[in-house]
Amino acid sequence: MDNLKEINEAQQILNQLLDLLPQAEKHFRSARNWGIADIFSDGMMIDLFKHSALNKASNVMNRINSLLHDLQRELKDIYIPVDFEMNLGGFSTFADFIFDGFLVDMYMQSKIVNSLNQVEELHRRLIELNNQLNRLKSRY
User: Cα–Cα distance between 81 and 124 in angstroms, integer?
Assistant: First the structure.
């Protein structure tokens, strides 16, 4: 029965993660869309909207990272990629506003798309993990 308890605890964390991941994806898609607009036009407002979406994504990703660490502790024998971080801050954010131009916009866009791809891959992996836990749970 101890294993069943561990599985249930892991699935509680997984359920929280599976609720948060679509939010992160939504914010990254919004940032991606604003990034496309930024590439083809010029304007501070577009940068503000893009970075607002990125800030929202970052807040959700911080919670996701915390839950991934919790999940990894619950499932000590299963490797789960943690720290899906978007390192968009610092100089790249500064450069996006100050040196706003095609090359900087393309660089930022590649970072946003990469982060979105990582979140989508994490989502797929966690769905599969949840399916595996359901199969394991059915044995008890």
Answer: 12
Quote the tokens at residue 55. Answer: 């800030």
What lies within 8 Å, CB to CB, of 109 at 6+ separation is 32, 35, 36, 38, 39
121/119 Cα distance (integer angstroms)? 5
Residue 36 structure tokens: 């496309």
Nearest-10 crossing angle of helices 91-98, 44-74: 160
Q: Which of 4-8, 18-22, 48-52 has the lowest mean pLDDT?
A: 4-8
Evaluate whether 93 touches 51 at the Cβ level (below 8 Å): yes
- DSSP class per residue in the chain: -HHHHHHHHHHHHHHHHHHHHHHHHHHHHHHHHHHHHHHHS--HHHHHHHHHHHHHHHHHHHHHHHHHHHHHHHTTTS-----------THHHHHHHHT-SHHHHHHHHHHHHHHHHHHHHHHHHHHHHHHHHHHHHTT-
Cα separation, 50 vs 86, whole angstroms:
14
pTM of the prediction?
0.78
